[in-house]
Amino acid sequence: MDLQQLEDEARQAALKDIQNMLQRPGQLEKVEQYRHRIARKKASVEALLKTGMQNQLDGVRVGLKQLETCMQDVREVRRRMNEVENLLQGVPEVYDALEVVREENTKHSQYATAMENLKHIFNVDASVQKTMGLIDEDKLLNAHQCLADLENSRDDLLYELHKQPKQHASDKITLKRHFEKVDTVSQALEKKLRLILSRTLNTVRKKPTVIVTALRIIEREEKNDQFAVQQQKVTGFLPPGRPKAWRKMILDVLQSSVATRIEGSKLEERTDNKMWLVRDLEILRQIILEDLRVVKSLCVPCFPPHYDIFNEYVKFYHEGLSSYLDTIVRSGLEGNEYVSMLAWVTHTYPGTELMSHPDLNVDVHKLIGTLLRPEHLKALEDEYLQNMQRNYQEWMTKAAETEKVEWFSETVPDQDEHYYHTSAPVIIFQMIDQHLQVTNTIHQELTFKALVMSIQQVEIFGQTYLKNVIELKEHHFRNRDQIKYFTHYIITIVNNSQQMVELAQQMKQLYWPKSRTEHYEDFERLLATFQRIRAHAASYLLEEAFLDMECHFHDLFTVKWLASSMSVDTICVTLDDYFQDYNHLRPNNFEMVINEAQKLLAKRYIRALLSKRLSKPRVECDAITRKIKQEAKRFKLFFEKIAPKISLSDSPLDLITTLSGLLISDIELLVLDLHTLLGSYPSLTEDHLVRLFYIRNDVKAAEVREKVQDAMKSKKAMVSIAKQDCIFKEIVFSDKLW
């Protein structure tokens, strides 16, 4: 440390402080105050330094005294060790001199042990017979005392042999052979204890003292085992037959008796009774509940607390039951046996009917776990779903075949409130509902899986159903005399399809979890399938009707048509005849067919209007227009008559009147009329308009084409405004006018 440097730094710091204190003239008057304050601070610092130095010196003084004391102690220890070393130098000579004494001491110890055990040495056979008699008389405590005396005598003698430096194997063999009957007595006592404890649940009801006696013996043997093991660690000697581990033995016996009791509860096989599994599980429930009540009320006071006998019994029953049920599952289940097993494992066993019963109050999931391993439980659920799927497939295949046979039969379909139907939709969804109600008793996740699988199977049934419907239609239209009640069964198919959709939606509301979105596309696919079947079947109805009217549509807009209303009359009569059958459609389906019939009628009429069959001067077009409007009105009145409750606003038939108005429009204002028309019906093409004006032969073809093309050029691309615009997309001619 550089003192000069420190002093210079202190001076520099002092100068800075003085400069800071005397920066203004008024501060010179306080110089004396500053001096006193600095003096006091200096005195304080000096006092602190002195105190610190004093404390440091005191510490050094104490440390020196302690070091001096330690040096004295080290010298004393060295002196004593030298003395001990000098004393130990004579020990080998003393050891050799005492060799004879040691030999005599060993002999004396052996003689003393022999003297103590003379009674047992010379009376081994008598003691064994006495002990065996006590065991037969169930005087187990006395028998165990005699056995303990015999074992102690044998073990003491063997220990003395073990301590000899020169051991002879023949001596040990001779001694063990002399006491070999002791092992027989021990085995007999163990067998007796096994027998008693295997009947614990019965014995504890009548003679709990017998159980207590057996447990006292076992606890004594456990203490002897512990002493023998501890002695082995010290001396290396372990008596024969130790450790006996009788506590583990009795737990194994109890577990074995539980397993035997579970397996012995089975009274019937599948061949004896279809409800064998339900009966078996119920018997098991009653047995286990009663046994665990006995354990909790009677066994717990008899067994030592560290046995935790109630929880041990719970584990024994859990493991035995798990093994038993696993064997049943591996042997194969059928039908409702899956449900019985799953419901019992997931609800009955851990629920208030068994483990959570107020008398037991066992949280089995927390204490042990599930009765079946998760992977086994999942495999069982998968097997159950596969079995359900096979049942669905078999039944729905038969249902589809039955429906197909009925279509070709000579009988009219069944009616429900005047509507044709079959029982297939209701039966299908009743079957599904029953399965879902059953799975709901197991757990929600299984219900959801069963619901999704059911939806998929119904959708597959729908695909088969649609294929059969198409085959039915093709077969009928090849020869319309073969199927007597074709129309009736197509009406039935339309009604059934609508009912399938409604039942599917009801099922979804009942069982589909609101929080689940996966597999929703399966449900949408199911609805779409049956909506498609419904639409197909409805189109077949109208296709058949319009097939009968085909020749009358060909007569429209001909010379014959101008002179007579026969064609339209026949069309209306034919439709009225068919709609007498269509009244057997359900209201929603009837409305759909009405709308489709109007659309199809309008399309066929407009197609005839645009078919270039008639060409007249402007004067005669007024009469043609009036006739067209009258027929359009007649069509609407017909539909109002057969369907008074269905609104006919924005009917496709209004298109007929709209188009007929163009026939009498002023040719100079035609472009404006076309603009208005194309604004409402963008799908109206140039070919359609040119064909319409073909009826007016007073207008030159080039002029019509020019007007139409002008209107088409100014037509803006737009989304259809009128919902009937799609009709024009469906009217396509293979021959072009221009």
Jot down its keywords.
single chain; 738 residues; mainly alpha; Tetracycline Repressor, domain 2; two-stranded antiparallel ribbon; 31 helices; 75% helix; 1% strand
Question: Overview of this structure, please?
Answer:
This protein is mainly alpha-helical. Strands 1-2 form a two-stranded antiparallel sheet. It has 4 domains: 117-239; 249-361, no CATH class; 379-540, Orthogonal Bundle (Tetracycline Repressor, domain 2); 556-730, Tetracycline Repressor, domain 2, CATH 1.10.357.70. The chain is 75% helix and 1% strand. It is flat, with a radius of gyration of 55 Å.
- What does the largest sheet look like? 2 strands, antiparallel
Q: Helix content range of the residues, please?
A: over 70%
CATH topology name of the largest domain, in short, is Tetracycline Repressor, domain 2
Average pLDDT metric: 84
| Rg value | 55 Å
Assess the beta-strand content as a share of residues: under 5%
Number of helices: 31
Give the strand order of the largest sheet, numbering strands 1, 2, ... along the chain.
Answer: 1-2
**Uncertain segments of ≥5 residues (pLDDT<50)?**
none
Give the name of the CATH architecture of the largest domain: Orthogonal Bundle
Domains counted in the coordinates: how many?
A: 4
Tell me how many strands there are. Answer: 2
The shape is: flat
Structural class: mainly alpha
Task: Identify the CATH homologous superfamily of the largest domain.
Answer: Exocyst complex component Sec6, C-terminal domain
**What is the CATH level 1 assignment of the largest domain?**
Mainly Alpha
Oligomeric state, counting identical vs distinct chains: single chain
**N/C terminus separation:** 120 Å
Protein name: GL17031
Organism: Drosophila persimilis (Fruit fly)
Pfam family, one: Sec6
InterPro entries: EXOC3/Sec6 (IPR010326), EXOC3/Sec6_C (IPR042532)
